[in-house]
Specification:
Layout: H1 17-26, E1 83-84, E2 121-122, H2 131-142, H3 148-158, E3 166-169, H4 176-186, E4 191-196, H5 204-215, E5 218-223, E6 226-230, H6 268-280, E7 285-286, H7 296-303, E8 309-313, H8 319-332, E9 336-341, E10 344-348, H9 354-358
Parallel strand pairs: 3-4, 7-8
Antiparallel strand pairs: 1-2, 4-6, 5-6, 8-10, 9-10
């Protein structure tokens, strides 16, 4: 009869007698050199985990202070002229007949300027106006006139298209916030390059006048629509004037109609005939959006020597720019706009005097 075999324990290697006594007294886990066969396949987790170090609490973050919408004191500027959105594209003789937004909303922000806003401009106080003192101060800042060599050096430095000191002027012309941009460039540069585009280029003389009058600088270079504005020999950035910024563009006021149903000096039938003749004629020029219109006034004047009605094709400029071009041509040529239709401008030269007709 076969007896079942009894499994015997795996024989363990016996160590020295000293190691055996040490295991019995302290346990095998405290030996510095344990046996290889007693090494488990996984790391043992000690029963008493080390206590984590107490981290010092982080200081509380300071709360962001909300910016004040209304400052403690309104800004005060010593500039002796009325603050407008655009200085070159508005005429002081124009009187609005209405407003598209309440006049109590100033584009400078509530309580940020000590000048009241009337819907068109922030009028200057009578105490600030000082014509002679302003002219003398401007002459002191400009200092001695530049020599031809100095002008040539500045022009060569700033006239190129890759100049970093450049300001682009759009259809708004010389705007109020542009004055602050010019003074910011003058902090690190003697001059600034201004590239003019859009409706404002119809009258470059007006742009040059307002740039020199409002900033106190001097135009030292003018080529078609490129200007270089010099700050002056004695210009000090720390003494620059205070120019409060406009926070948004105010809506344009409502002005009387430019085109009347019946042109002055004509009957209704004659006006209708002039409009049809202009629509059926060839366009004198085709204007592009934000283009350079420097030679438009001269071209229209030359055309009126032989033609009575002129048509300008503004199909790519937009309705707003089309009307602005007609208004500026009315004052610069001068002429009479008789029709704005489908972005086409029909201009009538007006009635000639008897002396001109006889000659």
């Amino acid at each position: 009869m076969l007896l079942p075999r009894k499994l015997l324990p795996w024989p363990r290697p016996r160590g020295s007698r000293g190691q055996t006594l040490t295991r019995r007294l302290f346990g095998a886990s405290y030996l510095s050199q344990p046996d290889d066969d007693d090494d488990p396949p996984f790391t043992r987790i000690p029963s008493n985990l080390p206590r984590p170090l107490a981290l010092s609490p982080l200081p509380p973050k300071p709360k962001a202070q909300a910016t004040k919408i209304i400052p403690d004191e309104p800004a005060r500027s010593d500039l002796p002229f009325d603050f407008r959105y655009s200085y070159s594209e508005t005429d002081l003789s124009w009187r609005p007949i209405g407003f598209r937004e309440p006049t109590r909303f100033s584009p400078f922000g509530p309580g940020r300027l000590d000048r009241p806003w009337d819907g068109v401009a922030a009028r200057v106080d009578g105490e600030v106006r000082a014509g002679d003192a302003r002219v003398s101060n401007r002459e002191e800042v400009l200092g001695e006139a530049l020599s031809e060599a100095e002008v040539a050096e500045l022009v060569e430095r700033y006239r190129h298209s890759d100049c970093s000191r450049q300001i682009n002027m759009g259809k708004g012309g010389v705007t109020h916030n542009m004055l602050d941009d010019i003074h910011n460039h003058w902090r690190r540069a003697e001059a600034v390059r201004i590239k003019c585009l859009g409706v404002a280029t119809l009258d470059m003389d007006n742009i040059c006048f307002h740039l020199e009058d409002k900033t106190g600088g001097k135009i030292i270079y003018r080529s078609i629509n490129i200007l270089i504005l010099y700050r002056g020999r004695n210009y000090d950035p720390k003494q620059r004037p205070v120019i409060p910024l406009m926070l948004w563009k105010p809506l344009a006021p409502i002005y009387p109609r430019v085109v009347q149903n019946v042109a002055e000096g004509l009957t209704f039938e004659q006006t209708k005939e002039m409009r049809n003749r202009g629509l059926n004629s060839l366009p004198l020029m085709k204007l592009t959006r934000n283009g350079v219109y420097v030679n438009v006034v001269e071209r229209v004047r030359e055309a009126f020597k032989t033609l009575e009605v002129v048509r300008l094709d503004c199909s790519h400029t937009g309705t707003s720019d089309c009307k602005k071009i007609g208004v500026k041509l009315r004052d610069l040529v001068p002429c009479v706009p008789i029709l704005f239709k489908d972005e086409q401008i029909i201009l009538w030269r007006g009635k000639l005097d008897q002396e001109d007709s006889v000659s």
